[in-house]
Specification:
The chain is an alpha+beta fold and 240 residues long. The protein has 7 helices and 8 strands, in the order E-E-H-H-H-E-E-E-H-E-H-H-E-E-H. The chain folds into 2 domains: 41 residues; 157 residues, Glutaredoxin (3-Layer(aba) Sandwich). The protein starts with a strand and ends with a helix. This is Glutathione peroxidase.
Length: 240
């Protein structure tokens, strides 16, 4: 919209981010440069028109946030870990819905960490003791902490399954932090934050998941698996 007054030209564009300011600025310009042509009643009419346009655009914007596309986005947001598919150590797809009805302990593991031996030992104990009762350990190798999981998938499997005798599932190597973090871990962190933020702090952070696929607790790397045993027992006792 353009207003002219001798050599002065004003151009003002109305966009969705500045409707209120734009509309009333237009009114001001019209009054400033055309005050000799309009009466007070006309100015009042212009103000009413500007207010009406503002209300119209505001209503339109509010309606857009409740449109089907926004509703669909909300409906499609992950509700449990069963909404995710991950890769196993052989790069085959695994739908986590396959673990429905089980209590899960999800752990980011590493082969060369000072916590590796004790954690694998205690994870093995828990798995052996409760696997027939519906308990699973899901291990996700990660090399983001001091480069302590540098190996290939075959090398990781050799360490986990041969050296430490792990019988629970070991999955493909992933990132747990940063822009390339696995979607599963983005979800886990959003459900249970840690001390000083949601980021995973080190190897062997643990997430406990109930039989409905909901994250119920998070444990620091220094929390040994056997210290979680009572929490696991409590979830196993609950009917799915």
């Amino acid at each position: 919209m353009i207003f002219n007054n001798k050599s002065t030209t004003n151009f003002f564009y109305i966009d969705s981010q500045s409707k209120t300011f734009s509309l009333f600025y237009i009114v001001f310009l019209k009054y400033k440069y055309m005050s000799n042509l309009i009466s007070l009643s006309n100015l009042f009419s212009i103000l009413i028109l500007g207010l009406s346009l503002y209300l119209f655009f505001s209503l339109e914007q509010n309606q857009s946030t409740t449109s089907p596309s926004f509703q669909n986005m909300a409906e499609e947001a992950p509700k449990s870990i069963y909404d995710f598919t991950v890769k196993d150590i052989h790069d085959a797809d695994v739908c986590l819905k396959d673990y429905a009805g089980k209590v899960l302990l999800i752990v980011n593991v590493a082969s060369k960490c000072g916590l590796t031996e004790s954690n694998y030992k205690e994870l093995n104990e828990l798995y052996e003791k409760y696997k027939t009762q519906g308990f699973e350990v899901l291990a996700f190798p990660c090399n983001q902490f001091a480069g302590q999981e540098p190996g290939t998938h075959d090398e990781i499997k050799e360490v986990a399954c041969s050296k430490f005798k792990a019988e629970f599932p070991v999955f493909a190597k992933i990132d747990v932090n940063g822009k390339d973090a696995a979607p599963l871990y983005q979800f886990l962190k959003s459900q249970k934050g840690g001390l000083f933020g949601n980021a995973i702090k080190w190897n062997f952070t643990k997430f406990l998941v109930n039989k409905e696929g909901k994250v119920v607790d998070r444990y620091a790397p220094t929390t040994g698996p056997l210290r979680i045993e009572k929490d696991i027992q409590g979830l196993l006792a609950v009917s799915a």
